[in-house]
Amino acid sequence: MDPYGVGYTSQEVDPYHPSGSEKSTSSGSSGSSSYNPNAVVYSSNSESERKLNNIYSLEHDGNVHFTTQEEQEEAWSDLFVRGLKNIEDTDLSREITHWNELFQKILDLEESDERSKKLATIANDFVYCADTFGKIIISELHSPLEQKTIKPVNIGGVAGGLKFKIQDIIFKFVIDTEIREGVWMYGDNKRADGFAQKSANHEIKGLNHFMEISNGGLIRFPLMAIIDYRGYRLLAISQLPIDKTTIVYGSCDAGKTVHNSDPLISQEMERISKILNLRGHTVGLTQTFIYGPGDIEVHKGTDGRYYMIDFARIFPPEYPLVYQNQKDTIGREIFYQMLRPELVAKCDTPLSSDAFSGWQTSLFEEGLNRDVVRATNILHNEMIPTIIHNINMKPETDYSPSRHKVFEIMKILNIFHSMGINNRYIGSLASQITNKSIRELLLSEVVGRVWKRIIRSKLRRIMDITRRPSEEPYKVLIDEVFAMILKQEPEQIEFWSSMEKGSFKHIALQVYPRCLSQSDMNAEYDLRQCIDVKVVILRLRKFLNININESSLNQFLESNDYVLGIQDIVDVGSTVKYSCIVDYSHGSQLLTHTKDILRSSSTPNPLEVDRWISNTGEILNEAIRQMPRSFKVLLKLLQASHVKVSITNDHMKATRILIVGVVMHQMSVSNEMRSHPDIASLIGLIHLQLATIYLFHSDLDREFKEELVDAKKLLEVALEKDPNCLDEYILETLPLFTSQHSVVPVRHESYQKRKVHNLLTLVYMLNSSPSLQKPIQKYLNQIKQIDNFEILPHAESLFDCKQISKFFQNFQNQLESLSIQKLTISSLVRESLAKLSNLRILSVSDISPPSHKPEDTDPSLHLFFSSIFQGCPLISSLSITSNKLVNDHTFEGLHHHFSRLKYLELSKLPLLTDVTLTNIAPHLTNLQSLSLNNSKEYTDTAMTLLLRTISKTLETLHVDHLTLITDQICQVIIDCHPNISDLTLTNCIGFTTNATENIANKLSNLKIYDRVKISTPHTYKIFNLRTLETISIEQFNTTAFE
To answer: Domain Clu, which positions (predicted)?
Structure first.
């Protein structure tokens, strides 16, 4: 029997009885051999059915194309779509069988945008695959071996825990290991997986720093990720072409044999270690001299490359008895509580990675240990007290709303890290800080991290008990936690106030010793009074990847009494940590794309640019969080901040971004790198922009001068070393004209105005900086368009008429477009503007003569326009707006100059009358665009003469708020300008609807037509679903619920 056969007959048969070749020969049981329930046996032979005239009949369809069954089947397969690439033609189609080989080949490429793009792609793909497979491995942890999707493998290694391998990625559970009976690697006398997980964090940190310094050089590194899910942690590493026989440096057998057999690697390890300020020492039973920890491994792979693994103990341990002064002996915390690399780099002497451990077998072991003790004392007795003092000296600041508080927390933590202060001490810092606003931020962060620890342990316990993949138990747990944090019932108040075991304060002191002050530990004091619970929820959401319904989250953040519940929790996902190269490459790629948008368009969309650069900043901030002192990461982040400032209209926001950039530069860039031209030029421009804001938008004259001095020093240093170092940044700072841009319409955005103000500040600085004039001049020569030139009140004392005149002297033979507003036109300014011999576009708004009325006063601005017409013979576009001084006398004797104009705008000129329109009309023979707006003086007579005289090449006409003109003008437009394509007739009370509609009917070339529209109430109708009749809203309201 064919289970999917198709039976069909054209004969009239019982439609439910088999027919044709399947027709039964008897009604007995023998007929069962022909039974086919999946056969199509129904056929319509009824004449009435076949000739039924319905909406799909041919006479209705006409020439409609009928889709064949084959075409319908194709619609469910891989459709050909014109304009979309076939997957086979892209790199995405290539299966990655060896992550490492592809990764190393990309690293071998020259530094370029393409390299960054490829690095970002492979790194993100690796992280995604590691996360996907990691969640499967953890979810199936308690499944029987035969039921596991990904089965464990035996690939050796000293550390315990199951290992898995899939698609060239090796996974290992991060758990504590019993190194001998009764002794655990991290927990000493009991298993402590939490401490083992801390050690895994150090794997990423060590990898980041070695990879940054090596930079694709002699020593190579694997792709690596850490996956946290359901309370468990997996370490994922791309498989390398190494084994126990390929090791050339370090030890893979707990120090029984220590290798240092390759001179090239020995030299490279010494070089890198000196940069990290790590000291060489003898290690292991063989007393071999190496740099770094004894258990580090460098292999010469079977592919000929050198590979490094095991980075957890790159940096020296902290001496524990300084902070834990109640203890008498050093415990196993030396294997997971490390000094931060930023602190190690600041120490006067190099430090041993193996301090206090049995790995050291040097005769100078005590000296090596004392160096680390001194470094620990610097941390606790100098760094931490200094930062506490500095914070307490800061004024109280409201960092609201809660989302912004999270941003401030990340900034503070980055500062701590750049000073070498570990996260484990933020509780101790919070308890000693008296600045209430910052104390609230830090204590909220502490509370969030304590809850993270609690939740992860509970997640793991749920996983071990349920022993199955599930979502609901984890959502229930998060729901209970949210209730404990947010509700104000007696049970929650007691939990947050008590010091008893199991209370929050008791747990917090276990996780973060000394995190509470004496007043905090008052048993009557609800700790939530000094934190922001919304910040805690936001941090938990980030820590644990808790997916909360977006609308619920927004309502929670905007309300003071909304308690998030299980109905608001979508799921509890995994979190992934990975090497800095992932975020750095991705951020670099996005930054390049953002700059391409800025450079490819003369008028980029600020919203689009802001979206791209905001994403770039978020990703690069993640990278800098891992590597606070990374020069290349910091440079990219500062570049992103510079672009962000260049497109924001908010001066306060721009100021904050610029100040953060200066602080990051001071905190994170080493002294020897501060003079690097890339960073010095960028920070110099940041100081210049701060000076501009202080001058034009505040009364901070002293700060303006200080910022200008800093800008001058840095730019002099940078340009002396590299005269082209500003090429990368200048477009975002000045209103620069590039060869691929043409002069564009005036741009009124605030950020465009700020670029003009930056230019004013720069030219002012050049007057006192001869050494900068030559290298900067090439950028000034590219400026051909200046929009929104305005001297704001705060800057008037500095930019007087003399300074403005000197400013325009820099652009005499190059400026093509100029827009000025609210400018006092003195004789000096008038003469300097008249020398702009290449000027083609001029827009003036609200300009005036000097108020003190000197002898050469120009009350009607006649002298100004006379000078402009004579000195600027190329002007073809003129816009005069918002001026109560311009009148008919202004243009006396100048009417013939209007013959050169193609574009003319006269707007908000209350003293200009028909006289001027009548006089200029004969000369407007080349006009293509005309705008006449906001006048009570223009009549039908002058307008008719003007429109009949103007050449029929007029393409654009904008008429707005002309109160005296009538329908006569509409008929003139129809008669004289049949080719007009852009027409605006608005707010002219003399126009009737019939006249304006007649224009729409008669002018066939109109593409844009804006006119008065009479709005009428819209009658909404809906369908009666039973009768398909249309009923009104009123009918619906009365009948819908009957």
So the answer is: 72-322
Structural contact between residues 553 and 531, judged by C-beta atoms closer than 8 angstroms: no
**Integer Cα distance of 723 and 779 in angstroms:** 11
Label residue 1013 by pLDDT band (50, 70, 90): low
Q: Supply φ then ψ for residue 576, to 5 degrees.
A: -130, 130
355 and 503, same structural domain?
A: no
Q: Give the residue from 205, 225, 240 where a domain finishes.
A: 240
Sign for the pseudo-dihedral over CA of 702, 703, 709, 712: negative
Residue 223 has pLDDT above 70, yes or no: yes
- Rounded to whole angstroms, the Cα distance separating 826 from 830 reads 6
Q: Report which of 619, 623, 544 is spatially closest to residue 579, judged by C-alpha positions.
A: 623
Mean of pLDDT values over 4-32: 44
- Of the residues 546, 572, 598, the one at which a domain ends: 572
Same-domain status, 563 and 418: yes
CA distance 790 to 844: 11
Read off the pLDDT of residues 230-271 as tens digits, 9 standing for 90 and up.
999 999 999 999 999 999 999 999 999 999 999 999 999 999
> Do residues 233 and 270 share a domain?
no
DSSP one-letter string for 433-446: ---HHHHHHHHHHH
User: What is the number of other CB atoms lying within 10 angstroms of the CB of residue 670?
Assistant: 11
Give the Cα separation of 219 and 210 in Å (integer).
9
Return the structure tokens found at 824. 């006092």
Are 623 and 580 in contact by the 8 Å Cβ rule? The answer is: yes
CA angle 626, 629, 633 (to 5 degrees): 70
Task: Locate 586 and state its tokens.
Answer: 């991705």
Q: Using an 8 Å Cβ cutoff, are 583 and 620 in contact?
A: yes
Q: In terms of Cα–Cα distance, which of 860, 789, 856 is closest to 827?
A: 856
Q: How far is CA 85 from CA 73, 89, 338, in A?
A: 22, 7, 50
Task: Examine the domain organization and report whether 187 and 256 are in the same domain.
Answer: no
Does residue 37 belong to any structural domain of this protein?
A: no
Phi, psi at residue 945, to the nearest 5°? -60, -45
What predicted TM-score, i.e. pTM, was given to this entire model?
0.83
Distance, in Å, from the CA atom of 73 to the CA atom of 665, rounded to the nearest integer, reads 62
